[in-house]
Amino acid sequence: xxxxxxxxxxxxxxxxxxxxxxxxxxxxxxxxxxxxxxxxxxxxxxxxxxxxxxxxxxxxxxxxxxxxxxxxxxxxxxxxxxxxxxxxxxxxxxxxxxxxxxxxxxxxxxxxxxxxxxxxxxxxxxxxxxxxxxxxxxxxxxxxxxxxxxxxxxxxxxxxxxxxxxxxxxxxxxxxxxxxxxxxxxxxxxxxxxxxxxxxxxxxxxxxxxxxxxxxxxxxxxxxxxxxxxxxxxxxxxxxxxxxxxxxxxxxxxxxxxxxxxxxxxxxxxxxxxxxxxxxxxxxxxxxxxxxxxxxxxxxxxxxxxxxxxxxxxxxxxxxxxxxxxxxxxxxxxxxxxxxxxxxxxxxxxxxxxxxxxxxxxxxxxxxxxxxxxxxxxxxxxxxxxxxxxxxxxxxxxxxxxxxxxxxxxxxxxxxxxxxxxxxxxxxxxxxxxxxxxxxxxxxxxxxxxxxxxxxxxxxxxxxxxxxxxxxxxxxxxxxxxxxxxxxxxxxxxxxxxxxxxxxxxxxxxxxxxx
Amino acid sequence: xxxxxxxxxxxxxxxxxxxxxxxxxxxxxxxxxxxxxxxxxxxxxxxxxxxxxxxxxxxxxxxxxxxxxxxxxxxxxxxxxxxxxxxxxxxxxxxxxxxxxxxxxxxxxxxxxxxxxxxxxxxxxxxxxxxxxxxxxxxxxxxxxxxxxxxxxxxxxxxxxxxxxxxxxxxxxxxxxxxxxxxxxxxxxxxxxxxxxxxxxxxxxxxxxxxxxxxxxxxxxxxxxx
Lengths: 515, 226
Fold this sequence. Notes:
A: about 525 residues; alpha+beta; Beta-Lactamase; 4 domains; B: about 230 residues; alpha/beta; 2 domains; five-stranded parallel β-sheet; 10 helices; about 10% strand
């Protein structure tokens, strides 16, 4: 043993040597840096299947390998590097059969005369019976599964809560703590409702009941932070077994960004609508100037006539006539005013004034507004309104204009239609089962549309069958109706004539969050 | 609308689809003492109008249904109606204005003009109408006077207008001097003038109105009547 002779501590048959030999487990005394085997024992001889003398001066890394890491020597160094004891599973190459065997290795660092040494002890894994092994494996798998769970639980970017079915928080992850800005200890044991803004609690408890029955599996709500602010969240839910009891797993995602994106998109849509309105406004100016000039001009002419009549020597006799003209001054002023009101309503960027209105009253007003034209062409206009119509949250001016536009179109069509029974019917109804909407139907018995015209075309801007007019009346109607959460369409009637139908949402069609 | 006489008062015909507009114009015309009639479309007016009644037309450029103001002008011209037309518009562009004037509108007003501007246009249109009518009447009257002449009187008239002496005329026509003198007297009397220069002036005026030689025109007429 020339190489080991200088190591007096482990000289053959020396104290250390004997101690080594007496150890029940296969043991190797190695140089900590080179892993050269300096001494070994009988048990090692038996385990490895090589003679003791043959093992000396070999590198331990040629005998033992680590299952986890390919670079065996560095792993072994890791095994032996720390001062103190450590153990891990290693593989041992049995020389005689060239087969690998799973062993448990432990190492202990030593010093001898300034030389760094390590004592590596190798033994078969402590429990070796098959039954014991399978129990061990199951336990390992279990702990691995729970480790995996823990890992996912902790690393999840979403806040995760485990709750009892009554909403008491059993566990929560880091993201959950960050979401609510409180510590895990504070979070555990809390009722989930206390983590929701007070005004949202009724909704959440209703939804929780719905969850219990499996009716829903996700919903949107808000979370309350410790500083009192609320943030929008999306919640997904599943039921699990936690420590043997039924529990609820809540996946909570901060959807602030998502909400912001939605709002930005909505804002973008609004701007787009605004731009298209503006473009249309440009085109509208001509039409509006036209529309406004007529009443203003006739107003001033009537007023001139009025003044002139009063200056006549026989003014006293003319008074009834003068009064008549004066009435026309007033009505034309009103007409001009109504047009400007409408323009303002339109220019207010589509945020019309909503009030609770009687839709039948609006229809009557529109009929009155257009009565002159109906009378001139001997057209009867009949209104049927359901009893118990709900009040409608709407912009009165826009809806009246919608009625008036459709009525005017009908009157224009009927005026040139050879018939002595010219009639327009207006029906307003509300389905008993669908109280959210009122439905308005306007039907005339006029000539209907030319064969080559499809009803849908009517609602396109600048489409007109007449030679006068800009062809924007029905396009406006559509934008008004849609702004009220309704739809509008037209149908050619088989018997001739047209039917216009539009619906209006009773609540005005505006989402409360929209503004 | 059977009016066919200069003696009838001139009427203002207002055509506009906007009731208030046509009623206000009517009120203005009425208070200033002229007859006025209103129509909501051009077709109604054409159906009611005789084609010769005196007055003027005020029509909107854009009419909601039926023909436009411009089309009405064309229709009137095609019928040979020369009634003056005032075109009014709430919103006229250049091409509409040009077209209206090209079609013979006496004026084009925007619906922001004052009542007095409108009235001035009406008065001008009516003056144009009556001038035109009195000219027609005058010409008609002039022709009637010459039409009383017989062919043999026309022959003498032609010599007189040429400045020929009576005896030259007598020789040319192979008639006696007395006959020439008698016929010459008849010509002046029938045409209603007291001197030859006056006769010459009227003759050439008639030539302008007829666009041809009055002698040949009158001779043809007189011979065909006989």
